[in-house]
Fold this sequence. Notes:
The chain has eleven helices and 16 strands. It has helices spanning about 1-20, 55-70, 80-85, 100-110, 115-125, 130-140, 165-175, 180-185, 210, 250-270, 360-375; strands at about 30-35, 40-45, 75-80, 100, 190, 200-205, 215-225, 225-235, 240-250, 270-275, 280-285, 295-300, 300-305, 315-320, 335-340, 345-355. It is globular and about 80 Å long.
Amino acid sequence: MKKVVFISIFLFSLCIVNAEEITPNAKSSILMESSTGKILYEKNSNEKFAPASMTKMMSLLLIMENIDNGNLKMDEVIKVSKNASSMGGSQIFLKENEQMTVEDLLKGITIGSANDATVALAERIAGTEDAFVKLMNDKVKELNLKNTNFKNCTGLDEINHYSSAYDMSIIAKELVKHKTILEFSSIYETYLRKGTENEFWLVNTNKLVRFYNGVDGLKTGYTDEAGYCLTATINKDNMRVIAVVMGEPTSNVRNDEVSNLIDYGYNLYQREIYLTKEEVLDTVPIEKGNDKTVNIVTIEDASIINKKGHKIGEITYELDIKNIKAPIKKGEVVGSVIIKEDGKEIIKTNVTVNETVEKASFITLFLRHLNEILSFNY
């Protein structure tokens, strides 16, 4: 009996050692599943470190939001300032007064980690880099990040410029919602100023895009203070994971340990969808709408990350819907649903209507009311 206990303790200790050795050289690391935010592995994930050019993920998030809201367009031509052209470090060697499209500047940032391109877009959005950095820190507060403060938009070492592996993973989680960014960050090589005397060859600083099948982003970083950093993402087997390492000693070790994190996640975990956003949960009345009723669906697929081998039990759900009045748009939150497995709550998520419903005209409402009166009298 004692031998059995001893062997069990030994094997348990061995598992702990192996878990810790996934990223033994990183100062901090994390592995997160993107759709749920579930942490699959972490090491010192809330400690503050210099994030180097992973800072640019926040810059890219703000840039993509400006594209989405129409303030910025991919084909818009940006005139480069003297300040932007003077940036050191990684760059695409923009010249003062040079003109380049937003799309090409984005390629410079996502593929080549270009500081000059980042500042050029920051100035276009906010007027100055300082004003843009304020927007970055406003976004930090909005995302409720506790261990991040930015002093510039590029990631160059500066006093009081810091983040954590966890905070970087949250920024990445928000960034990958903008699918266009992955179209750029998954490119391994391309050219800027093609066919001109200033043609520039861009090669992705994230080598995993080429050497780890399926990796489609996201951002590398290196400075003397930060060491080698990387946020990588991959989507396979219906599950997107985000892996972050900070403070690695070399780029090769950085790549190996991120690869180890990804392998760990897909070897042990799977994403299971309990409700798709196409499934109608209920049909409810809508006040003063062109339609009398509307279908209720989840805003996003309701999923959970389980260990491989998990068998799904009996699934039930409870809807909590507020009174719905027209007009209402698809995607607008109208309540929530609690999903239970074998009677235990596992997911709570927001619900919406499956189509936009406009407010009915006065004539439509009058005729509808009159019809109800006549039907009642009959």
